[in-house]
From TrEMBL:
Belongs to the histidine acid phosphatase family. This is 3-phytase. Residues 1-18 form the signal peptide. The lineage of its organism: Eukaryota, Fungi, Dikarya, Ascomycota, Pezizomycotina. GO terms for molecular function: phosphatase activity. InterPro entries: His_Pase_clade-2, His_PPase_superfam, Histidine_acid_phosphatase. The chain crosses the membrane at residues 429-452. Keywords: Membrane, Signal, Transmembrane, Transmembrane helix. Pfam families: His_Phos_2. Gene3D superfamilies: Phosphoglycerate mutase-like.
Length: 479
């Protein structure tokens, strides 16, 4: 039997004048959900709509017939699973978000899914040609696979030194000053939150989870106890305090192991883009769904807080950051650009793409928006953790998968570099990629990322849109 329209969908893209997008890696936050203070957490209809709309935006950007920036070689209408790598932790909210996003990216194809059988009978796939796109599931290293039910930033990271580093914030003068300065603020909110928090718990130590609770309530609850206390200034302060709290748990400039989630994410990004390059765009699209704290950790490591202090805030639901692999040389099936002719551009949107602008920003303190591939990979290698031994050493872990690396005193950032074929990739880049290949063989890089992404999450936040209504967690739901 034959699938109508398949050859049309898979037809080679025409030669593109000017810039060509060779591949894309998207890291995406989930959509709106129920409050973390009332597990199990689940995605809402609003959340599904948010990520669906985001997927639809990226379809218009990269796949639509009238797209100005189509991804080279990527099927436009009918999803070809070998062309994409979509991943998510074993978590209901994140998995469902990924599925909703994919339905926006590759919607039902109707008659294009029609198949004519040997008896001349025609069959169209269910739900108008609904496309079943697998989301690769990965378990976390922690005992709790559901990232969204984890209230503490490093609770599911499995990285001993990262946990200790985050804990050290609670012993800092900065934390204790904030704790004392805000006691009356949180105490005054008890009439709003006392269905969930006791007097002893209403303080800055729970800044995020309190914000999350109230944020969800302002979105979903038709009535909130003592709602007159929730003035615009109060909601704004709740958000700012949650941002300060979470930023200090996710990143520290003098103790970068605290940003271990961002380090592992950086390694994954380089791995995928390098595979796109060496595979000549055989798998040009990578999509990963994860926690907001991974955004914050990466932002800190990539020095984006120097671009704008807004990057020190919690990203809104359905936020996404994009890494585009681009070239100004002609790309075709017979001619593929050299790595020397390829660059990387970083873009970010706070909230649902399309509703909010996708904007390019400079990375690593550089002045240029678009960086040569070798420069990008070299800068990422300065903080990427893509090798099992390196991760174990950096985290101080000596048991489980790290037991075999315990005697070693260094992580071996160069581990596996020799196994990378020479395709024009610079030495520092090859070192990172080699380490990543080792990890994929020994443990599975993605399992680490999601273990490290088992961080607390919120809904709407302040980042790059501090004046927007927060859409996060919620008050004890009575509805």
């Amino acid at each position: 039997m034959q699938l109508k329209g398949l050859l049309v969908s898979l037809a080679s893209l025409p030669l593109i004048k000017g810039e060509t997008v060779l591949g894309v890696y998207i890291f995406h936050r989930h959509g709106d959900r129920t409050p973390k203070s009332h597990p199990p957490v689940s995605m809402t209809a609003l959340g599904a709509t948010q990520v669906f709309d985001s997927g639809n935006y990226y379809r218009s950007r990269y796949l639509a017939s009238n797209s100005s920036t189509p991804i080279f070689g990527l099927s436009r209408d009918i999803a070809v699973t070998d062309q994409m790598d979509v991943t998510s932790p074993v978590d209901t909210v994140l998995q469902n978000s990924a599925q909703a996003f994919l339905q926006g990216l590759y919607p039902p194809v109707g008659s294009l899914s029609e198949q004519r059988l040997a008896d001349d009978y025609s069959v169209e796939a269910p739900l108008g040609g609904y496309q079943y796109i697998p989301v690769n599931s990965v378990s976390t290293a922690s005992s709790n696979a559901n990232s969204e039910n984890n209230e503490w930033l490093q609770g599911g990271s499995g990285c001993g030194n990262a946990i200790a580093s985050s804990n050290s914030y609670f012993a800092s003068n900065e934390y204790h000053e904030a704790l004392e300065d805000t006691r009356s603020f949180y105490s005054d909110l008890l009439p709003v939150i006392n269905g969930t928090f006791s007097h002893e718990e209403a303080n800055f130590k729970n800044a995020y989870i309190i914000f999350d609770l109230i944020n969800v309530a302002t979105i979903h609850n038709t009535s909130i106890p003592s709602s007159d206390l929730l003035t615009d200034d109060t909601l704004r302060r709740l958000q700012v305090l949650a941002n300060i709290h979470q930023w200090n748990l996710a990143y520290n400039s003098t103790d970068t192991i605290r940003a271990v989630a961002g380090s592992v994410l950086a390694a994954q990004i380089v791995q995928h883009l390098n595979d796109t390059l060496t595979g000549q765009s055989a798998t040009p699209l990578g999509v990963q769904f994860g926690a907001y704290a991974s955004f914050m950790s990466f932002f800190g490591l990539a020095q984006l807080q120097a671009v704008s202090p807004d990057f020190m805030g919690i990203v809104d639901y359905a936020s996404s950051m994009v890494f585009e692999l681009v070239t100004n040389t002609t790309a075709s099936e017979s001619t593929y650009p050299s790595p020397d002719d390829v660059s990387v551009r970083f873009l970010f949107v706070n909230g649902t793409a399309g509703e909010n602008p996708l904007t390019a920003y400079p990375l690593f303190g550089q002045s240029e928006i678009t960086l040569p591939w070798a420069t990008f990979a070299s800068e990422m290698s300065k903080f990427a953790l893509g090798d099992t031994a390196a991760w174990c050493t950096a985290c101080g872990n000596t048991t489980g998968v790290c037991a075999s690396f315990a005697p070693k005193s260094s992580g071996g950032d160069d581990t596996g570099a020799a196994s990378i074929s020479d395709k024009g990739i610079s030495t520092p880049v090859a070192g990172v990629i080699g380490a990543l290949v080792t990890l994929m063989t020994v443990l599975g890089l993605q399992a680490l990322v999601y273990a490290l992404s088992g961080l607390r999450l919120v809904k709407k936040s302040t980042l790059l849109n501090a004046n927007s209504a927060a859409s996060g967690a919620g008050i004890e739901s009575k509805a």
